[in-house]
Amino acid sequence: MVQPAICSRCWGRGRWRPASRKWISLIGDGLTVQARATTTADGGLRIDEAELASDGLQATISGLQQADGAARFAVNAVIDNIGRVVPGIGGRVTLDSNVTRTAGDTGYGVTAQLAGPSALNVRANGRVNDDFTVQLAMNGGLDSVLLNPSLEPASVSGLVRFDGTVNGPIGLNALRVTARLSDGRYSLPAVGVAFRNIDATAQVNGLSAQIDLSGTSLSGGDASISGRIRLDGAREADLAVRVNELIVQQPQLFEASISGAVRLIGPLARGPLVTGEVNVNQAEISIPNSPLGRAGMGLQGLVHVGEDAASRETRINAGIATGTRLGPAPVPMRLDLRLNAPGRVFVRGRGLDAELGGTLELGGTTRRVVPAGTFNLLRGRLDLLGNRFTLTDGSASMVGSFMPFIRLTATTESDGVLTSVTLSGQADSPEITFSSVPELPQDEVLARLIFRRALTSLSPFQAAQLAMSVATLTGRSDNSIISRTRQALGLDDLDFTVNDAGNTQLRAGRHIGERLYTDVSVDSTGEGEVTINLDLTSNITLRGRADSSGGSGLGIFFERDY
Question: Domains of the chain: which residue ranges?
Answer without folding.
Answer: 19-131, 140-292+311-326, 342-479, 482-562
